[in-house]
Amino acid sequence: MTKSGLKFSRRTDKDVAFDQYEAGVPSYQNAIDLLPGWTGSFPDALKLKAGRLALYNDHRIAWMIKQMGSLEGKKVLEIGPLEGMHTYMIDQQKPDRVDAVEANRLCYLRCLITREILGMNHAHFHLGDAMAWLKEKPERYDLIVASGVLYHMAEPVELLRLMAERSDAVFIWTHYFPDVSEKTEPWRQAFSGKTETRELNGIPVRLYERGYFNASSNASFCGGPKDRHYWVHREDILSLLTSFGYGSIEIMGEDRNHSGGPCFSLLAKRN
């Protein structure tokens, strides 16, 4: 009892906020912290803590944009946007539309948070399988972007075929299997040793089976939807793209000594 005569009860568990509610001051950082496992960082000026990689300013995507000349008014399909940082770079070029298709549920939610924080006027994020999108949607695109996707696929040859059906220009950053490699190299450890050859357009495509070894249990996992996936031989990627009618294939930033395995960026265009 107080001097005013009012009664106050002691704090009980009924006064504790439910776990599904955020009790702090509203902020973008609260949204980032909601989802664990971020890979990319945000621009320094925003003073936000997420991942380590500055994918919002990726030199590979900057090179692609420069080689394309202009994306203004273009229709772009991005396969596997991860957290939407590359999408942001494309969106800044004022395309007519960007359809960004992400199968990983956590990555999809991170994309929505990135769109809210960085602001995107032309990008639309879609949760689901990109190969199903390519098979079922009739749209053609001026450019298809698949950065960090091909080497995670259970059916990489089919993905390349479907991309070629939907666009006269494709950008790919991927790891590949080289002509020569030492079995003792760290990146080789995830391979099963099994190989397959699949033929398309008269081209025998060499595939090398790989697994994730339970990496998918980590919140930051951003690989493919199936444990069994394949890397494609370097020359077979280029031969397939040529067979699809891409007369111009430009390669940038090839790194045969990358810790994750040999990799390159390429932009393939039909004349």
From TrEMBL:
One of its GO terms (biological process) is methylation. One of its GO terms (molecular function) is methyltransferase activity. InterPro entries: Mo5U34_MeTrfas-like, SAM-dependent_MTases_sf. The keyword Transferase applies. Keywords: Methyltransferase, Transferase. Pfam families: Methyltransf_9. This is Class I SAM-dependent methyltransferase.
